[in-house]
Amino acid sequence: MKCIKCIKVAKGYELDEIRRVSDLDADERVKGGYWKFVPKSEWKLATRKPKNDQATDQATDQVKPQSKKQLRKQKAEA
Predict the structure, then answer these.
(1) The predicted structure's pLDDT at residue 49
(2) Are strands 35-38 and 18-21 parallel, antiparallel or unpaired?
(3) What is the pLDDT of residue 75?
(4) What's the CA gap between 41 and 20, in Å, rounded?
(5) Which H helix or E strand runs over 19?
(6) For the chain, how long is the longest CA-to-CA vector?
(7) Termini Cα distance of the chain
(8) What b/e string do you get for 44-68 counting C-beta neighbours within 10 Å, with b at 16 or more?
(9) pLDDT of the chain along its 78 residues, tens only?
(10) d(C-alpha 58, C-alpha 7), whole Å
(11) Alpha-helix runs per DSSP H in 1-78
């Protein structure tokens, strides 16, 4: 699998559209002049949603008990 990016507007494709296709299909499209190869990291950035900063803040705000005694007290209270 290779990642390619549209560099010229073509029928059915938008400019700067990034696709992940098979090696043979990618080679043929790049030879046509409408596409170029891009690194997989660029494809990942375009397709993945950014992580929420709020979720990481909530996880760091929680204090973990440091000893077994504290764990037992929390279990007894619950």
Answers:
(1) 81
(2) unpaired
(3) 78
(4) 11
(5) strand 18-21
(6) 70
(7) 52
(8) eeeeeeeeeeeeeeeeeeeeeeeee
(9) 999 999 999 888 899 999 999 999 999 999 999 999 999 999 999 999 877 656 555 555 566 656 778 878 887 876
(10) 42
(11) 23-32, 40-47, 53-61, 68-77
Where do we find the tokens 């909530």?
58
- Looking at residue 64, its pLDDT comes to 61
Sheet-wide strand order for 18-21: 18-21, 2-6, 35-38
Tokens of 76: 């007894």
Q: From the centroid of its chain, how far is CA 39? A: 13
**How many alpha carbons fall within 13 Å on the CB side of residue 64?**
3
- With H, G, I as helix, E, B as strand and everything else as coil, classify residue 70: helix
59: which residues sit within 8 A by CB, 6+ positions away? Answer: none
CA distance 29 to 40: 17
